[in-house]
Amino acid sequence: MKVRDIGEFGLIERIHARAGRSSYPVVIGIGDDASVLDVGPRNQVVTTTDMLVEGVHFLREAIDPFDLGFKSHAVNLSDIAAMGAAPAQSFLSLGLPPDMDVQIIDTFMDGFVEAGKGVPLSGGDTVSSPEGWLISVTVIGLAPAGRVLRRDAAEPGESIWLCGPLGDSAAGLSILLGQSKKVDDADAAFLIKRHNHPLPQLRMGRILLEAGISNCAIDVSDGLLQDLGHICESSHLGAELQLESIPLSDPIRRLAADNEVDPYQWALRGGEDYSILFTVSPDKEKKLRTVLEKEKIDAVPIGKIVPEAGIRVYRDGTEVETGPDGGYDHFRSHPEE
Ligand code: ADP
Ligand code: MG
What we know:
This protein is α+β, with helices and mostly antiparallel strands. 35% of the residues lie in helices and 26% in strands. It has a 7-stranded mixed β-sheet with strand order 8-10-7-11-9-12-13, with helices on both faces. It has a 6-stranded mixed β-sheet with strand order 1-2-3-6-4-5, with helices on one face. The longest helix is centred in the N-terminal third of the chain and has 18 residues, at 65-82.
């Protein structure tokens, strides 16, 4: 059996099964956006790690080194945001081709630091790489004990909310890959920026936790259907989505119209938006709306959690598709390609 036969998530399950049990106070291990360790009565330590590989996550000629540094840090900070935690320190490991210009690394570091907004780089590792650039980042965060936002904490009847853009990143990638041919220059710049320079929703995550508005969140890194699917599977529940409630930017609407494609496919199955998806019980919705207005944060309801397993998507009251399928899997065929 090959890795491609079981796919990314099958492989993670297999690794998980061999990891064995431990008596260490790990409250959340493999399976959420970050792991959570008990360290005392007040705080929990929240840790996440993500890797970027040249040719898989980025094309060296298609991304500015500043944006690459920014994105490497931002995608990790996004997992910390999805737990409702605050980042405390970061680690950076690099595998680099020896002929790489050091100026590129300087610019990469400027982007990395900018994304962290003061989070201290506290260590890492530097090695040579014969086949392109490897970037591995770890971020350690802190959260008040017992209150992190978990994937397995959704309840039936809760509404599903989205904070941040959806689909723009995949649309930007379609331009970079030459799949979207008819492109307005300003729209292309906007969408490619969304792809190369994602903004982690740290403030939203913190507010959800601190105001006690939500117990359940995930960041949308592999497409809405797949990531909402993780919440549904972990919580042993299902979801209904109203397609027309998903906000789309004007550039993605124009790009889709000009190229005669459905922009919602980018929103449902495209990856790398790094928005936050969270669930809210009916009695907390008023508080959420008040907080969003006060903090000037955009988040919208797009559906609800239901007892029946699976995700059903409705457009103007008619069921149009069922998910999750076709999100990003590192070892299976890719929808964007
Ligand atoms: P995310 O998209 O939030 O970064 P992933 O989908 O990459 O999460 O991973 C799902 C879960 O599996 C996470 O909890 C992650 O830490 C864990 N995981 C992924 N790869 C490995 C591995 N090689 N060993 C142990 N855990 C892993
Ligand atoms: Mg995540």
